[in-house]
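Q: Hi! First time asking for a complex rather than a single chain. Here are the components, and I think there are two in total. Is that enough to go on?
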Amino acid sequence: MSGEGFVARIEPTEAGPVIVLSGTVNRVAKESLEAAYEEATSIEGEMKLDFTGVDYINSTGIAVIVGLLAKARASGRKIGAFGLTDHYREVFEITRLSDFMTIYDDAGVAK
Amino acid sequence: MISWRRRRKEGAKHSSADAAPVESDIGIIDPIPIPPGDPLETALVSLGRPVEISELEFDSPALSTIRQTGVEMIVPLVGQGELLGVLYLGHRLSDQAYSADDRRLLSSLASQVAPAMKVAQLVRAQQTEAKERERIQQELEVAALIQHTLLPKQLPSIPGWHVDAFYRPARAVGGDFYDFIDLGRGRQGVVIGDVTDKGVPAALVMATCRSMLRAAAQREMSPGKVLAEVNESLVDEIPPAMFVTCLYAIIDTAGGEVILANAGHNLPYVRSGDGVVELRATGMPLGLMPGMTYDEKVYQLGDGDVMVLTSDGITEAHNPDNEMYGFARLMGRVARKVKSGDVCGAIVSDLEHWTGEGAEQEDDITLVVITRTASAEVAATAFDDVPTDEVLATFQVPSIEGNEVLAIRQVARVVQSLGLEPTDVERLKTAVGEAVMNAIEHGNDFNPELSVTVEVRLTYGAVRVFITDHGGDKEIPDAEIPDLEAKLAGDQTPRGWGLFLIEKMVDEVRSDRQNGTHTVELVMNQKGGA
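A: Yes, that's all I need. Here is the structure of the assembled complex.
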């Protein structure tokens, strides 16, 4: 699943589904990310977003993630994240996204 | 107090002794207030004439009280629809009812007394106001006297150093203070602080804090421990809702090493041959809560280096457009080379230029400038080579969605050699991306014929990025803190993060509209090196 400059693929793990993101997270990523989310909901466990391959997140990308969190919240699904750079970790803290999703330090802990 | 000659009817019935001379039969009653909104007030204003109490057939708290005192006639003093006062009369001494002549006389009296009463009330109000003003003025004078008495009478004279200070209280006298403490063995303590609140309470807290600092400084050679000790003592002494911001530095006058700790005060700047750095040490203000600890920052002052300590009266001063002087401008002012003795004057002069001629000073202004002068000319010469205002790049991007990434890359390339901290570069990139995206979408309506212009400047210790679009006729909303809970609940759109992110990412954001264009200025101070 890919938007312009953005790809989301699902990687099932023992702990739950991981949506591996790469490229730019902006409004263009919305459709791909939501499709990946819908598909991942069929897999048990905590869903995690892997940001290791993401090079840029802007405010419209933040809005896409907020929309995803809203869906997960409505269905009682937990969402985590890992692979964020220090800068985007700060952005997640400033925007308080980190209050509503567990931010893991590395992929090993997350998976 | 109202008085009248009152015939005590009941007394007359029970005792012949009441047949005493009339002169002894004077009744005096305490004033009976008529509360605002009491039905009696409305009735008296409406009637506007002497009225016998038996005519008033309604319930009113004031009327009940008046009835119990034996009042028979009420004469309202009314002016401009307002009840200014009343005259209460008891029985006539003749025991006869009030005649029509009596009423006319009383009406005439009331119409003459009422204006006089109004004048008297105004005079009294003015006198009260004048007394209050005088009291406040006296209090301010006492506060100013306390502050003036406790501030250093002379500056320390240290070979190889130049110390300068400037203090100017605001009209309302804030709680700024500074102090120099000779710690012996070649060490000099320097204090700058600010007590919240104004007037005498602030001055008294300042005096207490200064004494505590002086006592602790003689016992303890660690600035962090001194502040922690003062905090513990002050917590028990300080009135609720007051606290003290304070920065304490110890200078090794032989080697130039500075150790400082900070309790929530403005950070000091050091200007050296490499530019201006901010000495960052953190800690909570004094007197807020017990058990606080204070980081210490160690910095080596070289020959010609200048350390500038300030109060928030400088950075929070406003210009006529209600813009704050701010840290970036102060940092830029510190960066400019002036003779060591003129640093205070240069900053104050720039501040006065900013606030405008004749502007009332909002808060106390305090500056302490310490220069290591051993061979000041060396550093000053080196600093001459540092450009202070330079356009580093100007470029344009067409208004096509996604082109903000081009601007981000270009700005990142331009600033990579300017010594910004890596985290600040990332923040600046995000802010530039958001501002350019706004310009493309909201300023230029995605019109690819219109470009967004980006200019990067290095100005007095700060990188400034100017982003200009063609939306000068559009209102720019203020940045609001997004309500994430409402967004997650679906009550608000998930969007609305752009302006918020911009404000959070850079040290300062300004915007300007002229000639049909709109420009956002992003300021990121150069903080590296400390």
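A: Chain B has a mean pLDDT of 83. Let me know if you'd like any chain examined more closely.
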